[in-house]
Specification:
The chain folds into three domains: 65 residues; 44 residues; 168 residues, Ribonuclease H-like superfamily/Ribonuclease H (Nucleotidyltransferase, domain 5). The chain is 45% helix and 13% strand. It has 13 helices and five strands.
Amino acid sequence: MPDPRLAPLVLSEDERHTLEGWAKRRSTAQGLALRARVVLACAQGGSNVAVAAQLGVNRGTVTMWRARFLARRLDGLADEPRPGVPRTITDAQVEEVVIRTLEEVPEGATHWSKRELAKRVGISPTSVHRIWRAFGLQPWRTEAFKISPDPLLIDKIRDVVGLYLAPPANAAVFAVDEKPQIQALERTAPVLPMMPGTPERRSFDYVRHGTIDLFAALNTATGKVIGQLSAQHRAVDFRDFLDEIDRQTESGLAIHVICDNLSTHKAPVVHRWLLAHPRVQLHFTPTYSSWISQVERWFAELQRRCLDRGVFCSLDELTTALEDWIKVWNATARPFKWTKTADQIIDRICRYCSRISGPGH
């Protein structure tokens, strides 16, 4: 019910059309978009408290923009003039920069550079960069994604995420994977240590001294890792690693192993081992979905803190470094915190699919 103590807020058709454009258009400044949504919600008769709850903002914010709109209509939603040197860039130029960045590309290129866009709009490259930063635009960056074609995608997401957020009682949950062919690399020249004003320097080329595979099982409750090194990653090696997980896990606990769809994980030798060890159950992640396995996060730490800048003159040195890294990690291990629910993940995948299957795709 409308609050009788509030002045009625009635929109003309032109005002409603303008506000809806500000609220929906992706090139609109987020502050102005929020103000437009506040006014549109108020026009539906909601109280300040109800509109604030609906939009997730402070009640005072709703009160202010309702009053500003009633006093000055659309002009009241603009930012007040600020003290200081007068602006040399107009709102139209700011909007042009944002719209061109989002909706156009320069001829013969895939994205704008600040100099190209500055020349087109008639402002300085520094101004273009400031506008990009203010609106969170980074046209030089891209992110890759892959939609899984797994027919059991939703079921597998719910299964794995359920183990993270609501693990079974009297059970241990492990995220398991292999990091194959870790190379023992020796730089062709000694590494020059870091000095004030100068980063560590190393030669570009290197000598290979062989490779080794690492099996890792991350306990999602404790963050501790069970590791096993192997010359190969065959099905029998995976079976032997399952044996190691079984041996190191307290008796009486069920064991849930989250792993990917690698053929070695489904080989007959593994299947026979599982029949002989009924407390161990495998849970498979969707295809092309390594992001859902927490052990991949641990592998990223291993790569960044141990391998990327490591110098290994032999396979034995690499083996020792990996074993030492696991010991150091386990001494202060903490679990990774998983926050996304299965529904949130599925909704995001649906939004991706909707965007890539829409008009123009």
